[in-house]
Specification:
Two copies of one chain form a homodimer. In chain A, α1 packs antiparallel against α2. The model of chain A has no long low-confidence stretch (mean pLDDT 96). In chain A, 22% of the residues are buried. In chain A, 29% of the residues lie in helices and 49% in strands. The first copy, chain A, has a six-stranded mixed β-sheet. The first copy, chain A, has three helices and six strands. Chain A is globular. Chain A is α+β, with helices and mostly antiparallel strands. At the A-B interface, β3, β4, β5 and β6 of A face β3, β4, β5 and β6 of B.
Chain lengths: 119, 119
């Protein structure tokens, strides 16, 4: 499978709101996830649990993914726009992020999130 | 100067179409530029010349930059949308890209472009 195929499947599933299907089927067991503040989480299960906690803290109204955009043989990037209401504030906000993904052996082995300074 | 200040100045100047001002004033002398295909260009002057060649090959109608988005202490990303007409085809197209930038000592020392597969 080419990185183009992996990346297009990623974007298609995310645009259907199937982010957890992506994490369960396309993430390597030893994936490393890097948050905007630089904090790293290692391992497929801890990374999924991190997203579950985010999903529990926010009501997600919509998600739009632009891309994929490619660099070199094994990296792609996407631009996310989320419409969410944090349960802590009750105030609906638009969140934009960039995600950079590294692919090895048809699996995503690293994700790195770039976040706005306002979050 | 914080990376937030550097990144916001970058976005503001690019949204004014002042990309060459960015390259001349914000790029380190030993900047490395990585194109979508992985090819690297080293040095401020060669990197500016690469952009000059792109500018000569395309009529640029507009540029919009989303971001900046931050990861860790020294990286930011932006999402570009260019409206251009390549002189080779005469056909106007919209080009989207993601750029990832590394900042050291208030200067941009590395840029990495993520491009759509269709280019």
């Amino acid at each position: 499978m080419s990185i183009q195929t992996v990346a297009r499947q990623f974007v298609e599933l995310c645009n259907q709101g199937k982010n957890f299907d992506v994490m369960r089927t396309m993430y390597a067991p030893d994936i490393v996830s890097v948050e905007g503040d630089g904090k790293e989480t290692a391992g497929q299960t801890p990374v999924i649990q991190k997203s579950e906690r985010w999903g529990e803290a926010n009501t997600i109204h919509g998600e739009k993914v632009r891309g994929p955009f490619f660099n070199g043989p094994d990296e792609f990037a996407v631009h996310f726009t989320f419409e969410v209401t944090p349960k802590s504030t009750g105030k609906r906000v638009t969140i934009e992020e960039v995600g950079v993904y590294t692919v090895k052996g048809d699996k995503i082995v690293r994700e790195q999130f770039f976040m706005t300074g306002e979050r």
